[in-house]
Fold this sequence. Notes:
Two copies of one chain form a homodimer.
Chain A: E1 4-9, H1 17-27, E2 32-39, E3 56-63, E4 67-72, H2 76-87, E5 94-101, H3 113-123, E6 128-133, H4 142-156, E7 166-171, E8 181-184, E9 192-193, E10 196-200, E11 206-210, E12 213-214, H5 224-229, E13 232-237, H6 248-254, H7 257-260
Parallel strand pairs in A: 1-2, 1-5, 2-4, 5-6, 6-7, 8-13
Antiparallel strand pairs in A: 3-4, 7-13, 9-12, 10-11
Amino acid sequence: MVKKIILLTNDDGIEAKGIKTLYNALVRNGNWDIWIVAPDRERSAVGHAITVFDPISVKKEFIDGIFCGYAVDGTPADCVKLAIAAIFERKPDLLISGINRGANVGKNIIYSGTVSAATEGTIYNVPSIAVSMNNLKDTDYTFAAEFTKNIANLLLNSGSLPERMLLNINIPDASADKIKGVKVTYQSGMAFKDVFIKREDPRGREYYWMNGELAEAEEDENNDYTALKNNYISITPIQHDMTDYKRLDYFKVKLNLFKLNE
Amino acid sequence: MVKKIILLTNDDGIEAKGIKTLYNALVRNGNWDIWIVAPDRERSAVGHAITVFDPISVKKEFIDGIFCGYAVDGTPADCVKLAIAAIFERKPDLLISGINRGANVGKNIIYSGTVSAATEGTIYNVPSIAVSMNNLKDTDYTFAAEFTKNIANLLLNSGSLPERMLLNINIPDASADKIKGVKVTYQSGMAFKDVFIKREDPRGREYYWMNGELAEAEEDENNDYTALKNNYISITPIQHDMTDYKRLDYFKVKLNLFKLNE
């Protein structure tokens, strides 16, 4: 029997603690092969950027005695494109992006390299999951890695997965006995509040530092923000048709198409 | 009466022909003030990247004798954040991102700096539109600019706009008499087919060039791809809740929450 293949990537870089811990948990299972293609350095907040005007270097490296992987001088989305369209001969059976340092819930997933890598997987119709830990600093990823392994097992052994499956998983930074369970959630409206700090350089030229503050969001036990806050693991199925179907007819009237079409 | 304010930005850079032509069309109306905050150079395919680890320089410049604007050493999303949260004292009434060199339809809008700038506007609840021309090379933007001015007029004079309004407009590169009309469309599944060209540098290290090819998509007179192909102006209302609502219940069963929650 051909072994299933899991493609690992992230946006914190190939040497990040999250991806190493995840690899260690997955490799102990042994029922799959694991490919690793990840940025050669931290690439957070790159959104769904891709590199089209520069060459992208790819180096096979042995990382900290743990795994061999491809270190890419590019974005998380670049890594996934390269893995699937250039480096390997076949598609992986599952893509896992993470484990990310910091939650990806609410509107902020639009900025997330972690989620964009998983999204890129679904564009190639590879079932994909993004996994993030609710702590902006490195912490103990052991439980999160074990949970992710269980999800991978469950998905890979449960028959066919739906087309373009994309799960955005966020894990509380708490000990296993404090975690209350798992919830399938919807994406909340949580957004960072942008704060800019204005400075002048020695020649009097202006520049800014961006410094986001976490904003509150509406509480609803079924959204990602609230589930995570209450120590539930949040799993949000996402998709990328952004059409605002509810308002199609509204805009047909509002935009006065008859007049515009004259 | 306080004049309405339009914020212009783009991803081709503050000196691009598209934004200059758009400004020239808008300024002839005179019923609004125009602010310009745009990247200091081309920032295509950056997706929704934001700059969080580096300072962002902002210079007020007089561009080609046409307009005064803020040139930002950052991404399109950075420009919008800076304009709204740092540079100006009040919110604009409408944000226009464009006119972009190249269409933004189908799945490719996820990579688009043009669309991400407009998305960022809606995060601040500023009604926003992205405008793109269906030609990857600079062309005559006069008709597109006039059309955009008419849309701006229509929107700003039609009473209150819906919360988080975001329109993705694509304009055929054809003379006015060849354009068949306007369609309110949904986002098609059109995606680039990624092609990587593998090279070696003089020291034998591998690198890749990404070279996307336009792929065909399903034809449906109501999607963005088909409308544009048939010389209609396509207007797709989009939104950014990516929750896959249709599959929430499916995943509740599939993920066997009872077991995971034990």
